[in-house]
């Protein structure tokens, strides 16, 4: 995993840097789901005033990563089962469009590099290393679709999904998940759009189910429902 982003912020574009640092800390699981964000503590940690912290928290609330509770403060979002189902419904629809476009003109060298990695994964692979490659691959699909609006919408759904992947990945068979990636890449390379879409949808439905299983086991019934 990369180094802790919660280090003093040094940049002329302070607001964006502070936003990125807090966002990355949440995505990486350093600030955990359900945890309260303390403006004072974050300002001290990042060596900035509370103003850019407050602005970053408001911006994060707009993306859905943070939830603002009146008179209580800001908390990292805890999803419900409906949230997960709704989020994956959107993700599957958008990534399906991305894969359809990539099948027509996907960058071959990049696809082959991902294929080589996923084909090498076994049960001894570090889950965090796998997660980084999985994230990179799906980001590649998003970035390669040549549609800036689709790219933006998918990027926002990825941020929310990544909140919980560090936890739900524990229940995933990395070897099987990697072979799903390999089969998907092969279908894209062969420009078999119908097969690629089917494989992508099955893969994402499995990821959704793993996340739902994690939430069911990890959260109180009142929060998971």
Short note summarizing the structure:
71% of the residues lie in helices and 4% in strands. With 225 residues, the protein is mainly alpha-helical. The protein has two domains: 14-76, Winged helix-like DNA-binding domain superfamily/Winged helix DNA-binding domain (Arc Repressor Mutant, subunit A, Orthogonal Bundle), CATH 1.10.10.10; 81-224, Four Helix Bundle (Hemerythrin (Met), subunit A) (Up-down Bundle).
Q: Describe it for me?
A:
71% of the residues lie in helices and 4% in strands. The chain is mainly α. A three-stranded antiparallel β-sheet has the order 1-3-2. A hairpin with a 3-residue loop joins strand 2 (66-69) and strand 3 (73-76). It is globular, with a radius of gyration of 18 Å.
List the SSEs and their pairings.
Blueprint: H1 14-27, E1 36-37, H2 39-46, H3 50-63, E2 66-69, E3 73-76, H4 81-105, H5 108-120, H6 127-144, H7 148-168, H8 174-189, H9 193-218, H10 221-224
Helix pairs in contact: 1-3, 2-3, 4-6, 4-7, 4-9, 5-6, 5-8, 6-7, 7-9, 8-9
Order of helices and strands: HEHHEEHHHHHHH
Main beta sheet: 3 strands, antiparallel
Q: Estimate what percentage of residues fall within beta strands.
A: under 5%
Percentage of residues in helical conformation: over 70%
Structural class: mainly alpha
Round the mean pLDDT to the nearest integer and report it.
86
Supply the number of helical segments.
10
Task: Provide the CATH architecture of the largest domain.
Answer: Up-down Bundle
CATH superfamily of the largest domain: GntR ligand-binding domain-like
How many discrete structural domains? 2
List unreliable stretches of 5+ residues: 221-225
Keywords: DNA-binding, Transcription, Transcription regulation
Pfam families: FCD, GntR
Domain HTH gntR-type: 12-79
Protein name: Transcriptional regulator, GntR family
